[in-house]
Amino acid sequence: MPQPVRIAIIGAALSANKGAAAMVESVMARLPNEMGACHFDVLTTYPDADASRVPDGVDAAVVGLQPLRLALVEFPIACLALIARTLRLPLFWVRSRGCRSMLDSAVVVDVAGISFADGRGFAIVVYNALMTGVPLLLGVPVVKAAQALGPFQSVPNKWLAPLVLRRVKTVCARGARTREHLDSLGGVNAVDVADLAFSLDEAAGLPTVVSLALGSIDSNFIVVMPSAVVRGIFESKGGDYVTAMAGLISEIRRTTGHSVVIAPHSYRAGLPEGRMNDGPVCREVAEACAGDAQVIGLDSDLTAGELRHLVALGSVLVTSRFHAMISGLATSTPTVVVGWSHKYREVLDDFGLSSLGLDSSALNNPSEIADVVARVLSTRKELSQQITAALPAVKVRSLRNFSAIAEAAR
Question: Residues 269, 271, 273, 274: is their CA dihedral positive or negative?
């Protein structure tokens, strides 16, 4: 019997950010259709939390690759490996768990979602370069699966992005703006795709505690998914995010009469708020709306598939999380986005819905967003049909990711 093809996955985790989990799970579910039996090593920042999150029936191992380990252990070893490769010396001596996992793999799949983008901060760009650079130094083919990239104007992005991206086997551009940014670099082997998570299966149901909570409100509800990332952006400009979101929900209730479900799309139980944890900000928003019995907050660590099912149950989705938007579109649920990057609109463009992609500054006038939600609700049937009509072509482009990965492995 042939041995499974070994695949290393970097740039995401199975816990915390459920958008990242959706991408990892999509790779593990769909890639065997292209390549036959596969063994996956998930190189993750959260190995302890991720160990229990490996989907049933998947041949996978979780490998710890925390940022400090990446910078202080794996990167120096990868640099030594490059010297050894240049001198045509064997690499049997490489034993660090991250580098060894990559060396033993036919291809490394980077599912970072967004990388090398101006405005994300010096440290994150350097982290992007280290994460993708280590397997390149080891001589292992790398595919950057469906992600948003660029622009590449700020320091150190304008130096590191071309240095890394021109050496990647294939960069899967998730939209027209990303493709324009890559073309501006020159020398990047790019292919146009749709997001990996369009290939994710929706869960059949929800945990009992969540179903019971939903039973306490009207069945015609609107799902609102706040974001710790957008909170940081909004409050850096002097705004009060929790007050703005509570005001938006109040206006949605007033203009539509529909009940509202507040839910986190990134969740780390018992930990403080952060880029990967929307739980605390969702709790604050729910507390600010506690006077309305038709507004509930869900404080549960749902899987990516369960979150997709929750979105599908809603009449409209209002979100600031990218992969929550993907779940809305994948389930033909009309979706209003309050975001911060070109990565949202370039996906909405595929459905003719770019007008529903708003900047986070729109939260300064919550009633205007509520008016958009009300208009969407009034044309819900037509918008749902519009999304459904566009989905087949988008899903075909999503599958191109797996073809690119299989080709790189060969």
Answer: negative
Question: Half-sphere exposure of 283 toward its Cβ, with a 13 Å CA cutoff?
Answer: 14
Half-sphere exposure of 395 (CA within 13 A, CB side): 17
Residue 205's pLDDT band (boundaries 50, 70, 90)? very high
| Mean pLDDT (whole number) for 217-240 | 95
In a domain, 398, yes or no: no
Antiparallel, parallel or unpaired: β 266-267 and 16-17: antiparallel
Q: How confident is the model at residue 93 (pLDDT cuts 50, 70, 90)?
A: very high
Residue 341 has pLDDT above 90, yes or no: no
Distance of CA 131 to the CA centre of its chain: 16
Q: For residue 400, what pLDDT is reported?
A: 95
* pTM score, whole prediction: 0.88
| One-letter-per-residue 3-state SS of 58-86 | CCEEEEECCHHHHHHHHHHHHHHHHHHHH
Domain end (from 128, 159, 193):
193
**Is 315 in the same domain as 264?**
yes
What phi and psi, each to the nearest 5 degrees, are found at residue 103? -60, -35
Same domain? For 230 and 187 the reply is no
> In terms of residues, how long is the chain?
410
Which SS3 state, helix, strand or coil, does residue 114 take? Answer: strand
pLDDT of residue 275: 83
Which run of H or E residues covers position 337?
Answer: strand 335-339
The count of structural domains within the chain is 2
Cα→Cα distances 70→23, 67, 92, 127, Å: 21, 5, 20, 9
- Residues in a beta bridge with 338: 358
For the chain, the first-to-last Cα distance in angstroms comes to 19
Give the tens place of pLDDT for each residue, 372-406. Answer: 999 999 999 999 999 999 999 999 999 999 999 99
Instruction: Based on the fold, state whether residues 180 and 221 are members of the same structural domain.
Output: no
The DSSP code sequence of 90-108 is --TT---HHHHHHHTSSEE
Contact 174, 195 (CB under 8 A): yes
Give me Rg for the CA atoms of the chain: 21
